[in-house]
Amino acid sequence: MQLSKTDFTENPFPSTGLEQPILPSKKISLETILFIVVLIVAIISRFSALEPRVMSHDENSHVYFSWFYYKGDGYSHDPVTHGPFQFHVVALSYFLFGPSDTSARIPAAIFSVATIAFAWQFRRYLGRAGALIAALMFTISPYMLFYGRYVRNEAFVALFGVVTIWAILRYLETGQNRFLYWLTAAMVLHFATKETSFIYAAQALLFLGLYFVYRITQKQWRKPEQRWYFLLSLIVAIVGFSFGILLRNLAQQTGTSGEALYPKIAALPQSIPLLLIGIAVILLIASIYFILSGYSLALVRKERSFDLVILLGTLVLPQLSAFLINFAGWTVPVNAAEVNSLTVIDIVHMALIIVPMLALSVGVGLWWNRRIWLINAGIWYAIFTVLYTSLFSNGAGFFTGLVGSLGYWLEQQAVNRGDQPFYYYALVQIPIYEYLPAIGCLLALIYGIIHGFRANPTAIYPGNEVHVNSEIDTSSDQNNLQQTPTTALLGFWAYTSLMAYSIAGEKMPWLTVHITLPMILLSGWFFGYIIDSFDWSAFKNKKGWLSIGILAILVPAFISTLRSLLGDNPPFAGRSLDQLAVTAEFLIAIIAVIGCAVGLYLVLKDWLSKQIRRILIIVSFVILAALTFRTAFTASYINYDRATEFLVYAHSGPGVKIALEQIEQISKRMTGGLDLEIRYDNETSYPYWWYFRDYPNAECFNCYGKEPTRELRNVPVILAGDLNYGKLTPIVSDAYYQFDFIRIWWPIEDYDDLTWERISSTLRSPELREAIFRIWFYRDYTRYLELTNHNPELQNWSPSGRMRLYIRKDVVAQLWDFGSGISTEPVFLDPYENKQVARTADLVIGTQGSAPGQFKNPRDVAVAPDGSLYVADTLNHRIQHFSADGTLLHVWGSFADQSKGDAPDGTFYEPWGVAVGPDGTVYVTDTWNHRIQRFTAEGEFIYMWGFFGQAETPYALWGPRDIAIDAQGQVFITDTGNKRIVVYDANGAYITQFGSVGFELGQFDEPVGIAVDSEGRVFIADTWNQRIQVMAPDESGGYTPLMNWDVDAWYGESLDNKPYLAVDSLGTVYVSDPEGYRILHFSNTGTIIDYFGDFGTASNAFSLPNGLCVDAEGGLWIADSANHRVMHFVWDTVQQSGEFIP
């Protein structure tokens, strides 16, 4: 039957007064006034102080490439930075307001306010009070506020999400086509914004499908028995398909080290998920047959939920092509470069999937409703094409949007970015930030269980809402209004959001926005219902305001009582002043609780229990809303650049802008503008490639395969991340002042690997309970870090990435004091300054590869008595033998890891050292098998000794690096991990050892390179002590310290920065400086003679020079490790005044 006018005007709830005019002569209601106030608060909170926060790691790509687009340099869609919509609106903001942090964040702020304003449209579904509360909760939500001021996609998606839900409800209610257009526009804009669109589309289709099934199963069927066949086949199909997809997804998930997160599932045959999916498809086809046979196609087509399923399904279907392309193992292009590099075969493969998908989409759409589908398809593809092709300037963007977005997203799920636990949202993000909507959802669920979800008690408004208890005819007339499943849809959306994002491989803080959105709408409905159904007239007559006042005292007093009892300093625990103060506070609080409880009983004793429950819910809502506002304000306006907040994965540190201000001041004083010469590294490029956009002379010194060189000494200001400190130190030396900052930091992740035992022990510990409460309420980590043996100082926060600002001392002297004192001393850039000589290799052997004659990171070289050369081809796990002219003679060795099984003789695990004895036999340090192997000159195995250990015996070695042999055939080994030198005879029999960990003479810290001169003196590269030690044999057969000298090199403690030594016939010492890309040349007393080399691939440059050896003619062989080659240098020398001049 059709609805009568009374069905629209009946209101089952007492009036709250929201609909009444605020002034007798005006039509502005209290509801309107309150909504305007909420909007004003939203605008102020979104637009205030957008500039101070540093662009975080995840904002930088968005703002930077939007700036490129704004400048006219174009934009090409790349799923790494999500959809193109954000880049268009941010570039437009730059055009209107100029590029800045503020203008970059304006679009997010506008869309966030629009999301709040759109809550007005939900009045017919949430009620007047419910819509107002939803708008308020959107405004004070920590996540909605923070990401409404953040250059990511979430603020845009939030608006598209609420429009999507609203359009679905409106069409289900009215059947009007205009709401289909709203739905299509919202969904395609979402698809052009972020890949979460696939989850939203799946949620909408799944709910609408379930709702469709629910509705038709409530109708009369022509063949009633087929209704049960339909339901059974459909349920089994859904279960089978879900398990198949879940098993396949879990089997592909890996941790940060590449291991399977779910090894038992990964070990299952791949055919099992495919079999489950195949069975599901067959059963789905069977269910379609049963519904057509037992119900009828004509009745199916009258269902509005069917319309929505067909429309959304056909529009989204082509976007799913990447699933099948990826499933077939074919290439899925994810960016413009990959599209442009597609082969003919790749294009054919894509066409085999995309063309049928498009044809199916068009065919089903035209069958459903030709006119309406064509209009919606026009809306969809017009918006999609314009945005993905960057206003028709990037044709490849259409295909990266069609298949690349989903293709990349599927890859990321396997990567498991963030490596967060499955409870990341449920037990971390929501309890810390979104506890108010979570509690509201829980209460709505309890209400639904008690009163039944089918009641759907939506507040009704005269003239625009259907009475929930009306008998509604949902037959053919599209003009009839139908009851909408508001609470079911919102509850389903909230639950599936939590499940979907918890199961997905990538778990990041900002995805909490998508979980929060439906929770806020559902909470708004529930709290609005409580307010609408509350008897406000009785409240006024029965001293309701007095009960509110009492509760306002009772709640904090009760909380204070609990904290006293459960905290780490309980009452009545002692007689010290602190303990007596706690006891006094507890007594005051408990007296207040008792007094308030008695007073509350006297005020409420005549109230109905239903009214008491509702007033408690309302008061709880007010308190929680106040706490939520405080949480949001603290996160967005106080801790916005601090890792004490969990709602950003990688915070930029406040030091970024402090350093930027200093650089700007220097530049303006030195150049009158922003023309200062600046160099920054790959670590600080995030965020400085954005902040240096107006500095024409700012360049990255090690991006795109470059490495730092000594040319940096001409630059007044350098920025570098902590991973590059070691490379810069030998370059900047003592010529620069250094200022350290936190560049990026992450929240602590102690919540990882939770077990019931950990949870139980934490809850039983008063100290940990108090510490965790202080984190939750105050973001104060001091107690917790002290209890867990971490440094509680914020400047020592871990995990974090540091950066260093280098300002040349002569620049500071010209300007002002930066806190280090103005230098009046001459600036020495390098203690080896003016000692560089130019030398070019006369022979270069090898290229990168695994074929004979090619190398992978060769670490050491050794010359045989016949002048031939042996090379430790480290990452190829072999030794190669060349003649003096570079002809390959022999190759032997293969990989074996002794720790994982047998490692037969002649196999290696990264040999780092090689040497040749007087008799021509070859010795190799098999570094990570922790042993020494001896071979004939042709590579035939002779003998080996050593095993892994921590110096328990002379043969217990730990990562032996270099090897040297003296004239008597004694074998000297740097047992690097054990910080000692061990000496054996030619057959491996132990002779002696010396050294231990330390800084004293004769002690070592990471000894690597070793060489023996003609007098039997042993030279050792004491790497981390940054010195060369010389040991001389003594009368007892041991070795004692003779002398040592410091080396201004080897600053980095990386695995690659391992120096080697060689001594020539004149007694001078050659030393490799791997990350300084040079060879240092000393007298045997430590006086610098000269050095040569710089970074590069030319024949006079190096990339990580390691092993050295001198041939009989005085030529020098060098293992240029990172260039995967061996180089030979030769020059004439004459002796003069103790120095050797080329």
Verbal overview:
The protein is α+β, with helices and mostly antiparallel strands and 1142 residues long. Helix content is 45%, strand content 14%. The chain has 35 helices and 34 strands. It has a six-stranded mixed beta sheet with strand order 1-5-6-4-2-3, with helices on both faces. Helix 10 (178-191) runs antiparallel to helix 11 (196-217), helix 12 packs antiparallel against helix 14 (271-294) and helix 16 (304-316) packs across helix 19 (344-388). The chain starts with a helix and ends with a strand. The model is unreliable at 1-14, 454-478, 817-826 and 1134-1142 (pLDDT under 50).
Distance separating the two termini: 107 Å
Question: Uncertain runs with pLDDT below 50, 5 residues or more?
Answer: 1-14, 454-478, 817-826, 1134-1142
Major sheet summary line: 6 strands, mixed
Helix content: 40-55%
Number of strand segments: 34
**Average pLDDT rating:** 88
Query: Which strand-content bin applies to the residues?
Result: 5-15%
Radius of gyration: 37 Å
Number of separate helices: 35
Structural class: alpha+beta
Choose one word for the global shape: globular
Q: Enumerate the strands of the largest sheet in spatial order, edge to edge or round the barrel.
A: 1-5-6-4-2-3
